[in-house]
């Protein structure tokens, strides 16, 4: 169970998410066929430019586009700089399957599955009862203590930040997730933009 902890719902809200890698969900949306093939690098430098309050990525003088042909536009400068850094980090070949932020942004921009805000929220909440952090081993004791040491701070932060109870279990039975908890998390998720929900859904 411990190996799957980084894919839990609770950690997607945590402020230190940058520690965790993107899950394989990104490759579920844009299949490996689109990203596994290496392309010869055709540009020298990736830069950013502002356009009506949003930011574009330029490969030399060419605008970056998504797999569906949309202009690659992100809502803030920090994200644009991070994506440009990914592209500037490519050497002789463009390894698209290693460019996690670019793939995540492509998903947000193209929305290839045409998922609505309600769909994304439902998808995130679906995994709440099976979040790895809620399941503990009763034995051996040293493993249980390690789980408490590593996972309890995240659960405690989540409970205090969103004022909702989160139960854990040492059995195979689902932990009790109250309607109040689900409602509170739903309210929080509903306050996010589609960009925010996409990040939490596919992270």
How would you sum up this structure, described in words?
This protein is of the alpha+beta class and 203 residues long. The protein folds into two domains: 105 residues, ATP12 ATPase (ATP12-like fold, Orthogonal Bundle), CATH 1.10.3580; 80 residues, ATP12-like. The chain is 42% helix and 10% strand. The strands form two sheets. Strands 2, 3, 4 and 5 form a four-stranded antiparallel sheet that branches. The chain has a two-stranded antiparallel sheet with strand order 1-6. Helix 4 packs across helix 8, helix 5 packs antiparallel against helix 7 and helix 5 runs parallel beside helix 8. The two termini are 18 Å apart.
Give a brief description:
Keywords: Chaperone, Mitochondrion, Transit peptide. It is built from eight helices and six strands.
CATH topology of the largest domain: ATP12-like fold
Our count of domains comes out at 2
| Helix/strand/pairing category | alpha+beta
What's the CATH C level of the largest domain? Mainly Alpha
Q: Which consecutive residue ranges, at least 5 long each, have pLDDT under 50?
A: 1-7, 16-34
Please state roughly what percent of the residues sit in beta strands, choosing from under 5%, 5-15%, 15-25%, 25-35%, 35-45% or over 45%: 5-15%
**What is the alpha-carbon Rg in Å?**
19 Å
CATH superfamily of the largest domain: ATP12 ATPase
Average residue-wise pLDDT: 84
The span between the termini is 18 Å
Share of residues in helices: 40-55%
Total helical segments:
8
Main sheet attributes: strand count, strand direction, barrel closure: 4 strands, antiparallel
- Principal-axis shape: elongated
Please name the CATH architecture of the largest domain.
Orthogonal Bundle
Question: What series of H and E elements makes up the topology?
Answer: HHEEEEEHEHHHHH
Number of strands: 6
